[in-house]
Amino acid sequence: IDDLAKIDYSLNNFPAVSQPFIDLDLKGTVYPSGNHTGPSCVAAPFVIPDQSDSMLYLAFSEYFFQTSSFAYYTAGAFNITIAEETCSYFNINTEIFGSIIPEVREYSVTPYPVMLKLMATEMPIISLQQDSFTAEIQGSMEVFAVLPDSTTQSLFTMNVAANTSIAPNIFDHKLMGSLCLNR
């Protein structure tokens, strides 16, 4: 897939061939690059609704998304540092945090740029629903002040738990999605 993850896809059963169709039952497991160990979860069987108005149907199970989540979590893909350039674009500095957290204001009279370190502390859990899927993410965020000599000073760390819903949709021949923060 990329430098962080690889996919192993193999046939679960012999292809079912009949007059109107060929059914290929592939099991796609995503692994961290360089670590082709057993999967982190068990694949549950699922059935695709019987329809015959299209030439090709693709279905992805929770197993595919769960092994993808495991691979990227193991590779550290969910650990992100948002540097000074990005924060200054959004005008995030110690003054902004000082208006929310009084201790930050006491520490920093002069507004300094900030750096954010976001880390997933547990593997994100992805669940599929009828018309959407949810992602539960546990993590932490550490906020640093970037001082004039380019050193950083830790301001605070907070734990984050997020539950989001994503509803994919096709609009003007493009796959789009709407994201909703549930919690």
Summarize the structure.
17% of the residues lie in helices and 40% in strands. The chain is α+β, with helices and mostly antiparallel strands.
Would you write up a description of this structure?
The protein is an alpha+beta fold. It has two domains: 1-76, no CATH class; 78-182, Bactericidal permeability-increasing protein, domain 2. Helices cover 17% and strands 40% of the residues. It has four helices and ten strands. The chain has helices at residues 62-74, 84-89, 94-100, 102-107, and strands at 5-11, 16-17, 22-23, 26-32, 80-82, 114-120, 125-128, 133-146, 152-171, 174-181. The strands form three sheets. Strands 5, 6, 7, 8, 9 and 10 form a six-stranded antiparallel beta sheet that branches. The protein has a two-stranded antiparallel sheet with strand order 1-4. It is elongated. The two termini are 31 Å apart. The model has no long low-confidence stretch (mean pLDDT 82). Keywords: Antibiotic, Antimicrobial, Disulfide bond, Glycoprotein, Immunity, Innate immunity, Secreted, Signal. InterPro entries: Bactericidal_perm-incr_a/b_dom, BPI/LBP/Plunc, Lipid-bd_serum_glycop_C.
